[in-house]
Amino acid sequence: MNITNDKIIAFIESYYKSIDDEMEGLRKKNEDKGIPIILRETENFLSFILSLVKPKHILEIGTAYGYSALFFAKTLPNAEITTIERSQQMVSVASANFECFPAGERINFYDGDASKILDSMIEDHSANSDLDLYDFVFIDASKSHYREFFDKAEKLCKPGAIIICDNILIHGWIVDRSYEGGKRHRTNIKYMKQFIDYIQERDDLTVSIISSGDGLALIKLNNEYKN
Ligand SMILES: C[S@@+](CC[C@H](N)C(=O)[O-])C[C@H]1O[C@@H](n2cnc3c(N)ncnc32)[C@H](O)[C@@H]1O
User: Fold this and answer.
1) Ligand 1 centre from 226 Cα, in Å?
2) Is residue 101 part of a domain?
3) How many domains does the chain have?
4) Phi first, then psi: what are they for 60, rounded to 5°?
5) CA of 177 to the centre of ligand 1 (A)
6) What is the pLDDT of residues 120-179, one digit of tens each?
């Protein structure tokens, strides 16, 4: 189910332009293989936000074949991207994709479970204060673990950083009380709803949930003025 009107989505997407032919080819390959990558509408929205925020250090959780990581690297030629993926099949394709494109040289790729990798990144950062913190985070992985990813990623962020979470409305099921789909989806819905409640209740965050793509949570850490 699309979370907004199909005709409206088709209209918005009719204006979509890929950033270059390589990315257009990569999008097609992902779509042909059924790999779930950022939707066109989401990509447009991220382009806009990135042009405002101009992050230098981006952390992504959920690489898949590397489409969005390459999109970040190509959109921001001075940024460094760190991305984490646990599926070995995805890791081998993403690694090959990163080697194919010059922008891939600015991508630090971690292979493994994001929760564990974030823990070891937090340890490294507490041992070495010279390590760069992130000013932009994109969470696009296992939907029942967003709270955990968010809490850990936040510890690696600069004050005032932006965190964007994809698939926050999970095909609209998050608001559909009659949803009777599979157990995995019911678990994802339950945890995603708890995550939405959590970010909305925190008064040190500015949060906006938008029904673009599969739903995005836009979160700003309001800790710039802390001593
Ligand atoms: C929606 S796809 C990511 C798509 C990618 N961001 C893009 O737009 O090109 C989600 C990916 O997150 C990975 N993933 C899910 N849970 C994870 C975890 N705990 N640690 C690392 N990767 C995870 C999955 O294997 C999957 O490849």
Assistant:
1) 33
2) yes
3) 1
4) -120, 135
5) 27
6) 999 999 999 999 999 999 999 999 999 999 999 999 999 999 999 999 999 888 888 777
